[in-house]
Amino acid sequence: MMNNRSTPLLGRSPKALIAAVVLAIVHQYLFYGHVLGVSYPIFIILFYAFMYHLANDRMRAPTPFGWLLLIVNLMLSMTYVLFNNSFFYVLNVLVIPPLIFIHMSYMLSARRIEWWKIRIIQDALDHLFVQSTRHFPTVFKVIRLSTFRRMNKQRKGVMSKVLLGLVIALPFLVIVINLLASADGVFNSLLSGVPGWLDQLSYSESVLRLIWVIIFGFLFFGYLWGFIKQKTYDWEKRAQAAKAQLRTDSEAAALTVQSSYQIDPIIMATVLIAFNAVYVLFVVVQFTYLFGAGQGILPEGSSYAEYARSGFVELIAVSIINFAIMMITLVFGSAQGQSALKKLNNAMLYILVGCSFVMLYSAYMRLTLYEDTFGYTYIRFLVHAFMLFLAILLIIAGFRIHYARIPLTKCYIVLGLISYVMMNYIGMDRIIASNNIERFRESGKIDVNYLTDLSTDATPLLIHFAQKEYPELQESLRNQQTDLWRDSNRAWPSFNLSHYRAERALNRYFEEEITKSH
Q: Which of 36, 210, 289, 319 has a CA that sits 20 to 30 A from residue 158's CA?
């Protein structure tokens, strides 16, 4: 891993620039004019290879979190091959790049910031926008030095003029060649000897692809070189000096600094008692009908729909507020003070956790009743998942009340990453389709339009449903087949397994229907 440590930067820079240009060429080939598909994980693997191979002497020793983030990024990129959910398709475009930039900063940055500290985001942004752009001029320096290093002064002058002439002539040559090819068929036939994909490119597309390669070549090289030759700011040097000085100070000074961020335990106890008094009263009222609502025991004058709709958002909001109060108490609550007061605050926190669970369960029941009445959708599924995630966070916070050494930030970051990957792989469309089909079996109600708007992940299940129970779905499936036919000529970089399976299943289904009709 450390084989580049002895390699001079000057000798490594031409290789890095060539690799960046090759990566940019691959990038435009995979993504220009194509929908994201198998191209995404292929490019991310190549990008990791590019960064780690050329900057491996800047890499920190492997850590569990480093491996976790690598696996998370690769698994999220694979969702563009395995699934076809439009929600996560858009969301992952916004999530994956920041996770990769944070991973690069964690593994390669000279600052060696720990992954659970918020400064890792600042460092990732610094490398993305500042450290990288300051090395854009380095590209020209690398070209000049690598080209002219072994030439004498006279040859350098001649070569520089030749290169300048080619740079000036190139865009005009592209225009002239395209005009001549359009004006004369014989000349155009002569040019047809070049590879077929080049022959099919229009002038505008050729220019756009060239610009694409140049821009991303600069971006890839600058981003890489920002880690290899990282600039240290003056304020960083002062901060490092102050930090070194702080280490030599007494423990008392450190405790003084820490105490300035702590909340007085009496104030905290007052706040917790005030909130819990209201929450306990609310929970007592909830228990009068909460567990009976699913059996038909509702508040007087309320229908299932009214009960399900009323108060759901408010309960989720209050649960989030309770979680925030717990975090403030656990993070900024004073560890000092009387033992009795500390025990009182801990007891109040346990009551807060219990009340929050009752509120979450009440919200869960209301949402379940609402789904039974109106069906299952993306938003309702995601709200269910969020409530489960919040409940797990509350459980961890509950353990933290007793076990003060539990690192909340680390636990929540790891749990958040794992939960997000699980949400991508759980098969949201299939679950929604399955629940709506089960609702149809119990109530006879179904929203066909919403079912057919689900992604191709649910198509095999819908085909089985149409075959066995609901032939009226056939027309909608036929429309979906037509839409898939229109997209069937997509290039291989856009390949998607869910899309492919759905198309094959639909073709097989309608072939069987035609056979039956004959």
A: 210
